Records
---
Amino acid sequence: MYASDGKGAAVRETVWGGCTRRALDTKSAEADRGAWVRGCLDGVSNAPQNPPTATVTRRSQDPGLLNGFRAWANDNNARNAATRTTELTTAQLTRTDYDIELTTTYTPAAQRQAGELAKAFVAWWDGDHGTDGVGRNVLILASDGTRLTASRL
């Protein structure tokens, strides 16, 4: 069951991926999705409950990843969406899972444009791009930090 491949790997991917997806869908987890994922994983693995004493989600900017996306967007008819992106942040949820957060110049009223940016980013994303772990979701944020949309990677 705990082997790195086979049925155990599929079960783990379903459970871990499900935990990260539920954290994304739960509005109460927005401030610290990593803590929510950790609680979910502890619950499904019968691990001892050790509530975190500090923020679990670790965010770090990744300008190299943003530049890679922009370069791809310039060659793939997504330049407009990419130029509206001001910052790319990796939000590490667990040791191996993270989300990508794109901060944009969009306002909260720009839902359609945010959706187009998310589609372009997902089309570009083909793996970890040098980041250790598994990228789960891309979140498009308005200029004021409000979430406009999210898509699975």
---
Amino acid sequence: MSGGVVGYTYADGNLCPSCTIGRMRANGIKVARSSDHEEAIRRAADQVGVDYSDERSYDSSDFPKTITSQQARTELTELPDGERGEIEDEKCDRCGKWMKLGEKSPTEAGLTRWVRDDYELPQALAREIARKLREWGLSHPEFITEDNVRQAAAMFPHDYVTVHAEGNPQRIVLMSMPQYDNDPCFYCEQPWEKHTFACTTCGNHVPADAPHRHEVQGNGQIKFREAKPTT
């Protein structure tokens, strides 16, 4: 049995060791208290006459079958643009704990705080990103990449911000206008031209580089009076 046992398929569910033993006891199977769940379940098999070494000889509805660390997989089917992905872990169907990680995903508020602090994002944008990541099945920081966060950020309204070092000694400065061609947004890594601004004069949503009667010129780029980006 390769990879180490991280959970069990039992009673129509994939369960962590603790929930497996709890379900077994609820179903009338005596399982001794032990720090070694594999040994405790193996002994329980002997008591009920199950050949635990041959999983083909019994059904998982009657007695647990092992899930190894190599078998624990979660397929992601909700990623944008038809992308498919996979997490090398699996949640317990009963308690929600990740079998290999040994812990649950943070709450939406907890994931929002992680996204905000780890990627230095505004609270409102971090909240939207965290919600989208959870929709994609990426509910734990362990499984989230920077590309995931930037891709989600590009889907929601936010101010364009670029980051540059200035002065001597140098200091990091956040700027609301690009300083160079194709200067990417710090939040979503998209160029300034990809953002859309809401004109507070007429209420229309206008691409950043589109002509507009309420525009003013600044730094060679189009800048809107009191305008805030919406994507």
---
Amino acid sequence: MNIVIIGLILMFSIASYATENVAPPAKLTISYIDHPSVLHQALPLVAQAYQAERINVDFVAIPSHRLINEIQAQHIDGDVILAKEIFSPYKELISVGPPLTKVQFVLLCVEGVPCNQQVLQTSPKTILATDESMRVILNKFPTSRRNRYYQLNQLGRLPHLLQEKRFEYAIYVMSSSWPIPQALEHLNRHTLFETPAYHVIHKRHAAIANKIAPRLTAILAKQRK
């Protein structure tokens, strides 16, 4: 009996040691979406943090409706930047370090139409949105369910479709501190709410997150000086 107990203890000890000493992957794959602020602000910032830790990363463009499923399925390892409301329902995703910025969920409007929160509450409108943005807006503003949503999972394309007068409204996500994307200059905007946005990775890479977090903190602090 004692031999069996000792054997079990040794087995669990070996398993625990193996789990704690899993070699990190040779290269991570991290997604990003086609958005000016992601390309010109967030991606270089995150890339700098991984370079400082000498961790090889492939950054790959993925449509917004696929990226969370891809991370959960462990086909990729994380995403450059996501709003808290986007990733918080998914327990496999963890934030890394401090917020990279605060982002605003905004209602984009063409000229000559109402552009305020009442648009989400009054007569039905057709509103362009990505899958995840639509989910967040419907949760935040239940009365907006009376609107019709046209889902297009290329966030960077939404302002252009409004400029082409194909739609009157869209839900867009933009940083409150980084430069305004040029595509928004000729559109009216109404801020619906603001939330922090983080670099995120799959929770299995928690050890890597602990290394990258202080790097991001230092880079952001240097930028603010």
---
Amino acid sequence: MGERRSAAWFGGSGRAGMIHRSWMRSQGFGPEVFDGRLVIGIATSSSEPAQCNAHLDRIAEGVKRGVWQAGGLPLALPTMATGETLMRPTSMLYRDLTALEVEELIRANPLDGVVLLSGCDKTTPAMLMGAVG
């Protein structure tokens, strides 16, 4: 296994590592979370207008607790939901945008792994497309 992606952000002893750690410290994360533990992103499409995604915030909190209990550092990443019932003209127009968003969130952040939480028949494939992108 190679070096964890998160180590490139948080493990450095130079200026860049200090800056990345300080951004997280300003959110209340203590120095103990920078001990080399896995950083796990929780990409969630929780959204009240998209009824099949509305409950995902509660599930994301449970996933966060599980990641903490397993010794990881969970970071929530909200993503766009493509609920069919209220989006006009159709949520299919936004599926590829959601896929691109998920792909870039995974690529652009210091994540060693990601949990995808989605609902609906457009959001779920979009998140899977983004994860393999």
